[in-house]
Amino acid sequence: MRALTAVAPEVVAYPCTSGSFVGGITGERAMCAAMTRAGELPSVTTSGALLDALGELGARRVALVTPYTESVTSSLGEYLVEAGIAVTGRAFLGLTRHIWKVPYRDVVDMARQAVVGAADCLFISCTNLPTYDVIPQLEAELRMPVLSANQVTMWSALRRIGARAVGPYQQLLIDGAAQAPAPAPAPEQPRQQRQEGWS
User: Fold this and answer.
1) Count of domains in the chain?
2) H or E segment to which residue 73 belongs
3) What residues pair up with 45 in beta bridges, in sequence order?
4) Contact at 8 Å (CB) between 19 and 48?
5) Is residue 194's pLDDT more than 50?
6) What is the pTM of this model?
7) For residues 157 and 13, is the Cβ–Cβ distance under 8 A?
8) Which of 24, 90, 147, 172 is most buried by its number of CB atoms within 10 A?
9) Is residue 91 part of a domain?
10) Which CATH number characterizes residue 35's domain?
């Protein structure tokens, strides 16, 4: 955390789905609390951001797509059930490595397999899985909101600082645009002291 706060961020995000749901809701909350204490600034995790996004959409029934093994996929399902979310279907690849190499077409195929019940939305887990470009396609085909790990993480982090995520044809970002909190006014600083950066 000391290395991260050295660049004066306004929020810190832990972008790992499995690493933040494995301890259940209690574990996820403890992780956020520890980051907040260490950095003295708002903190989010991917799994916590997922629950925020589901709440924003009013989604109570979710279909899951993961690159994980069956046991890790089941842990994600347990985390959601603990939060009062029903899992209506799931598809997983059983991978333990090289997740970033999964092609978009495999993600699309898994999504079609997972949406078998009356789901309110689809969640594609793992921040290492390429997903961004398939979200609009899947939302149009499946006729439901499609959430991904990286999408919800950035959406939630930006909301913490009063900003909003922008992306074409993504229901979460369209709905959230009207409800995003207004940004807090920033204190005036001399121009040479301002620092901006992306990671």
Assistant:
1) 1
2) helix 70-82
3) 14
4) no
5) no
6) 0.84
7) yes
8) 147
9) yes
10) 3.40.50.12500
